[in-house]
Amino acid sequence: MSRRALVLAALLPVAGCGQVQSIDADFAGLKGEPIAAAEARLGPPETRQGSVAVWTDRVRDDTPVLRDKVIFDNGRATTIQVMERPEIPPLKTCTLTVQTDGAGTIVAVDRNGTTAACAPMARKVAV
To answer: Which domain holds residue 47?
Structure first.
């Protein structure tokens, strides 16, 4: 393996983590902001109970997945693994929960969902 390929292989895991950290940093950036700023970027929350507001986003995740595929080579069946996008991508959910203090300032932020599901909401939050 060439030196360049080794360097790229070593950097791939780090590149994948950067996106997750970026999304979490985007959401954490809401701390200290007024709840009105979050509503301006995301629209009204899906639910609000007291000092807690919740936004939910659902997206189709068409991330390729590893699947077994049977091929026939010289009359013999052989199973290989291939990366394919799902025929009907599953819905993935991202839930953003924020808690405010008495003045309406966001004091806690929590996200629940995969990176693929939360990326669109994170882009809305990032300024």
So the answer is: 3-61+89-125
